[in-house]
Design goal:
Largest sheet of chain A: 6 strands, mixed
Number of helices of chain A: 14
Number of helices of chain B: 21
Oligomer: heterodimer
CATH topology of the largest domain in chain A: Rossmann fold
Strand order of the largest sheet of chain B: 6-7-8-9
CATH architecture of the largest domain in chain A: 3-Layer(aba) Sandwich
Number of domains of chain A: 3
Order of helices and strands of chain B: HEHHEEHHHHHHHHHHHHHHHEEHHEEHEE
Radius of gyration of chain B: 26 Å
Radius of gyration of chain A: 40 Å
Number of strands of chain A: 13
Number of strands of chain B: 9
CATH class of the largest domain in chain A: Alpha Beta
């Protein structure tokens, strides 16, 4: 008699542990493969997994087995032309000759690469492995300024609106039972005694009267127990606990003046995408604010940000001002982790650059976790770069990099977010 | 025995979709027929699983539960990859030699395939597991699942205690030597889960004390001299893992237990490696007969039979040596043909059969196939039962490849002069001791530097592959002292093949 069991609903991921162990063991090789892949494929594909290729010899498990050579005799089926004693040119290896004698390898040889697919999450893990969000820990320790209220039991004192009626009445019932039970028991006994006297053929009027009196006095004492007393009252207790902020806003600042062509914008876009993905791994909600500017700055949606073409001069400080306004009005630094990435080709109206530096150091950087500036240009650096260099020297939460071509994006990104050893940063505490 | 007349039973539904009640009906009919043919089986536990779960099962060498190791992850990734790319179909079933016998059926199969698989795995393989002498001797179906539960728990406990990496290192080394963790002559004892747990602690303690003892230099110097010349071990040891487990000086008790786990698993699979042809042949033989019988009883429809025969013939097909699909002899084809041929020799013997197989020809076929199933392994089964007819049908020919010559030579073909040679060659091809290099522990320098010497005895001058150095590194990790591999040459000289540590740098 057989027993049928439907296992289809059982856990599927029975091999997950083993799979992860494999990935962990070959992390170095896989990371190399991921890094190679990034430079080749478009960064907008980052949402997908990745195809990983590792040389087979790295993952092989060695066992003792024999090599071709010596004398070896094999039986094959389908003889169509041979008689015994025939001498045949040795067939090429791996062809119709079949496997060599006693070769114990179980997988098909000849394949020199072990390749497989990893999921998006695994890919991102590897991609952002050993990158740290700057100042993140500090944020969580210091920024516990948001509180949530939660029930934490009852207390005996409180405002009437917090009165827990059911709980209070339960207390009242319990107290009344506790205070009256003994007396009620006495009454019952006395009544039984009275009944005994009544049933007795002899009359006992005096005893009965005395007993009745006693009962009455007990009853009146029971009555004196109040229905509800002050110490029956129970009030709901609410406590506050701080919750670390887990919200982040990312400002994308970009120069859209005539000098920024579509290719440059595409590079900037990829950088923004990486930053966005990276932030989403650390924060639950990440909002994105797009600010584009030429001589004036404007908050726009994504489509317009990347694809509308404008001409004109460039005043970078206009964007910084707008960002500051938006932060002040919508993203309270106590509550939000503010990140900003600015992309530009380095063009700026020369007189404006010192303004930018002032704005950043005095107003923006204190409320910002991290401000990254990338300059996408193949020309000489201009005034903006020089001014920003000064900021970089003094402010720890400001970083700048120069990008030449698409291939630089990921290395630059890694360099910007590589484990922050820059020392303590105090910008957040100033807020 | 087999009622040949077609009954007018109303046939069972031929699906193609299956339901549990339909499966039960088929199973009941198959069970009825199997009893007619005296198939003795463990109780069946049939589990329906998805394709993904099937790949999980692949990865953990078919076992429903196993300890964690990265190599299983690698296997999973590899089979997942080739399945996704369509390079590989998944097996229709996996069956486990356990009591009750666990069989996995894929949910995607049609009812025909499910019936085929039930007949094949739950009655064919199952009865083979229960009846064949190798399985009876070497494995204990009732305790394997218990043991794996114990092993999984033990390994994960060790990982918690000593770290995943340290455990992994030992397991890697054990896996490298897994094929050398088998007792070929001693029968392993039966132990249940509770006993296993209880004994493990004692064993660990005892072992450690023994090992310390083994290496203690005796204080009396005259005694030391007299034993110094003794050869240790007194005889070469083929079970390398066992030797390490018991004698390696530096291992911790838990490491010895890990070696034991790998050894046990290896031992469990030892019979399966030696009965591939027979096991598959037997299962094919019976699914073929059982379903034919059901058809004769009028229980299955014509379309059922067509689908069944289609898949049956593709399973037992043997591509020829020059076909692009050729990858050696198909064990299903050879095994099925041989069992069918045994039946034929019993029921319709020819003069040739009387001459070649006098013990079989004309005997009761059911007795004979049961006898063949119970008492042989691939090697002996082929040398006993491969008849000239099968050799002719397969057009078998033996090719001799001597690396000293620049051609290969046809040594024998399927003719009167060649039958014997072809049969011997094919039989030797399934001889496990020919497939695995003969490497044994030859000597331990117990009084000196404690170095371990292995000796490889090549057959027909076949050399060892280059992976040897890697394996020695693993052996060195387990042994803890120098390890040397020698080769005993045909002319009686001994040459050193590899030594570790000679360039022992990478610990992986």
């Amino acid at each position: 008699m057989a027993h049928f069991i439907d296992r289809r609903l059982n856990n599927k991921g029975k091999s997950t542990v083993n799979r992860q162990r494999f990935l962990r063991r070959y992390k170095d090789q896989i990371k190399r493969s991921v890094a190679d892949a990034v430079s080749e494929r478009s960064v907008t594909d980052v949402e997908h997994g990745e195809h990983i290729t590792i040389p087979t010899r790295d993952v092989s498990e060695p066992v003792f087995h024999t090599a071709p050579g010596g004398i070896c005799e094999q039986v094959h089926p389908g003889n169509d032309q041979f008689v015994s004693g025939d001498q045949i040119a040795r067939p090429p290896k791996g062809g119709d000759g079949g496997q060599g004698c006693g070769d114990a390898s179980d997988t098909g040889n000849g394949e020199d690469e072990f390749s497989f697919q990893i999921s998006k999450d695994e890919y991102l893990d590897l991609l952002f492995d050993d990158l740290a969000l700057p100042n993140l820990r500090k944020t969580q320790q210091k920024q516990m300024v948001q509180y949530e209220t939660y029930r934490s039991g009852h207390q005996t004192d409180g405002v009437p609106s917090n009165l827990d009626i059911v709980r209070s009445l339960k207390g009242s019932v319990a107290r009344r039972i506790a205070l009256t039970a003994g007396k009620k028991r006495q009454i019952k006994q006395l009544e039984a005694t009275i009944q005994g006297f009544i049933d007795d053929p002899h009359d006992h009027p005096i005893e009965i009267a005395a007993l009745r009196e006693e009962i009455d006095s007990l009853r009146s004492r029971i009555k004196r127990v109040p229905f509800i007393d002050i110490f029956d009252l129970r009030f709901k207790h609410y406590a506050k606990r701080p919750i670390p902020t887990s919200k982040a806003v990312m400002f994308c600042l970009m120069d859209v003046s005539g000098s920024m062509d579509q290719a440059t914008k595409a590079i900037a876009k990829r950088f923004y995408i990486l930053l966005y993905l990276f932030l989403t791994r650390n924060y639950k909600d990440v909002e994105v604010v797009y600010i584009r500017h030429h001589t004036q700055a404007k908050e726009v949606d994504e489509q317009e940000f990347f694809y509308s073409q404008e001409t004109g001069g460039t005043i970078v400080s206009s964007a910084l001002k707008l960002m500051l306004e938006i932060v002040k009005s919508r993203y309270d630094a106590q509550e939000w982790n503010v990140y900003a990435a600015q992309a530009s080709d380095g063009d700026n109206w020369a007189d404006d650059s010192p303004n930018c530096r002032k704005l950043l150091t005095e107003a923006l950087l204190p409320v910002t976790r991290y401000f990254a500036y990338i300059e996408i240009t193949q020309r000489q650096h201009q005034s903006l770069w020089r001014e920003y260099t000064q900021i970089q020297d003094t402010q720890a939460n400001f970083a700048m990099r120069h990008i030449n071509s698409e291939a630089d994006i990921f290395p630059t990104f890694r360099a910007l977010f590589k484990s922050q050893q820059k020392g303590e940063y105090d910008g957040a505490s100033a807020a | 025995m087999a009622p040949a007349q077609r009954n007018s039973n109303s046939p069972l539904s031929d699906g193609p979709d299956w339901t549990f009640s339909l499966l039960e009906q088929y199973e009941a009919q198959i069970d009825r027929v199997a009893k007619l043919y005296r198939l003795d089986i463990y109780p069946n536990q049939i589990e329906i699983i998805t394709a993904e779960q099937m790949m999980d099962a692949y990865a953990s060498i078919g076992m429903p539960i196993n300890y964690s190791h990265w190599s299983f992850g690698k296997k999973f990734i590899a089979s997942e990859q080739s399945y996704k790319r369509g390079q590989m179909g998944l097996a229709y079933e996996i069956v486990i030699n356990s009591d009750p016998c666990i069989a996995y059926l894929m949910e995607e199969n049609t009812i025909t395939m499910q019936a085929l698989v039930i007949a094949h795995a739950c009655y064919g393989h199952n009865s083979f597991f229960k009846g064949n002498y190798l399985f009876k001797t070497w494995t204990d179906a009732s305790s394997i699942i218990d043991y794996l539960v114990f092993a999984k728990k033990f390994v994960s406990d060790c990982e918690e205690k000593y770290g995943v990496e340290d455990v992994e290192k030992i397991m890697d080394s054990c896996h490298a030597l897994m094929n050398y963790g088998v007792d070929r002559y001693k029968r392993p004892s039966k132990i249940s889960l509770t006993e296993e747990r209880a004994r493990q602690a004692d064993r660990a303690e005892y072992l450690q004390s023994q090992v310390n003892d083994l290496w203690r230099t005796l204080p009396q110097s005259h005694q030391a001299k007299s034993v110094a010349a003794e050869h240790f071990p007194s005889e070469p040891q083929e079970n390398i893992l066992y030797f390490i487990e018991k004698k390696a000086p530096l291992l911790e008790p838990w490491q010895r237990e890990l070696i034991r786990v790998v050894r046990k698993v290896s031992q469990y699979f030892y019979p399966q490696k030696q009965t591939q042809v027979m096991n598959e042949g037997w299962a094919c033989f019976w699914h073929y007969h059982i379903l034919q019988h059901l058809y004769d009883d009028g229980l299955v429809s014509d379309s059922f039979m067509f689908e069944f025969l289609h898949s049956h013939t593709s399973v037992v097909a043997q591509p020829e040596y020059n076909s692009p699909y050729y990858s050696g002899i198909n064990p299903y084809a050879l095994g099925f043909a041989m069992f069918m041929d045994i039946k034929r020799m019993c029921t319709e013997p020819t003069a040739e059969d009387y001459a070649a197989m006098p013990d079989i020809a004309g005997k009761d076929w059911l007795d004979t196939v049961h006898f063949a199933m119970q008492n042989f392994k691939d090697e002996s089964f082929i040398s006993q039962f491969l008849s000239p007819k099968v050799m002719r049908d397969f057009k078998l020919f033996a090719v001799r490849d001597d690396s000293d010559k620049d051609y290969v030579e046809v040594a024998a073909i399927h003719d009167e002069q060649g039958y014997q040679r072809v049969r011997e060659t094919l039989s030797a091809q399934y001889n496990l001791s020919n497939l695995e290099p003969n490497i044994q522990i030859y000597q331990v320098d117990a009084r000196g530097d404690r170095s371990l010497t292995l000796r490889y005895v090549p057959q027909n001058g076949i050399p060892l592959a280059s992976s040897t150095q890697q394996v020695l590194k693993h052996l060195h990790r387990l042994w803890g002292f120098d390890v040397k591999l020698e080769q005993a040459n045909a002319d009686g000289t001994i040459s050193t093949l590899a030594r570790c540590p000679s360039d022992f740098t990478d610990s992986r």
